[in-house]
Amino acid sequence: MELTPCSWAKGDLYLEYHDTEWGVPCYQPDRLFEKLCLEGQQAGLSWITVLKKRPCYRQRFHNFDPQRVAAMTDSDIDDCLSDAGLIRHRGKLEAIRKNARAWVAAEQKGHNWVEWLWSYVGGKPVINRLATLSDAPAQTDASAAMSKALKKMGFGFVGPTTCYAFMQSMGMVNDHLTSCPCHPDNQPNL
Fold first, then answer.
1. What is the rounded distance in angstroms from the CA atom of residue 43 to the CA atom of residue 4?
2. Which of 65, 83, 141, 157 has its CB surrounded by the most CB atoms within 10 Å?
3. Cβ neighbour number for residue 33 with a 10 Å cutoff
4. How much is the pLDDT for 84?
């Protein structure tokens, strides 16, 4: 069987993201925070829209440093609303600040975000064996539980589907198709 990238990975930007980030286990708190926020920006849109705007998000939201984002003012958010490099949706932009405040508040109570987020998959990647993109679920019991817990902590734009997309992108769940060279079964060194 000839291996080909997952069918959604069309175009240079998507293919690079697919090959180097999507499904690769991430244990860095700053990257986990960034992706949790960016997945919420996608709601109702395609991921490529967010991916193209990611450099601007990083610039405007202090490289997703939770402390700095939590300190952003209403004026800062208003200023972001005029930036075409962002998705200009007040609720989504305010959710990034809201999420930062919830993240920081939990850390101040001793919360370890890496351990906590990864606990939803038992601390190691779930390797799925999907033949087609349509075989992938939009959400799972684990993503629903994560969503519920995040909302209880004060997060916004973190529904079960968003949480599942986050889990896929951060490598907590590997949903590369079995015909993809990035699937673990196709990587002999793993």
1. 28
2. 157
3. 22
4. 97
For 130, list phi and psi in degrees, rounded to 5: -100, 130
Tens-digit pLDDT profile for residues 2-35: 999 999 999 999 999 999 999 999 999 999 999 9
Report, as residue numbers or ranges, the catalytic residues: 17, 39, 47
pTM of the predicted protein model: 0.96
Give the angle 17-179-22 at the CA atoms, nearest 5°: 20
3-state secondary structure 42-83: HCCCCHHHHHHHHHHHHHHCHHHCHHHHHCCCHHHHHHHCCC
Q: CA 63 to CA 67: how far, in whole Å?
A: 11
Cα 80 from Cα 57, distance rounded (Å):
9
Strand pairing category for 126-127 and 173-174: parallel
168 Cβ neighbours under 8 A, 6+ residues apart: 22, 23, 136, 174, 175
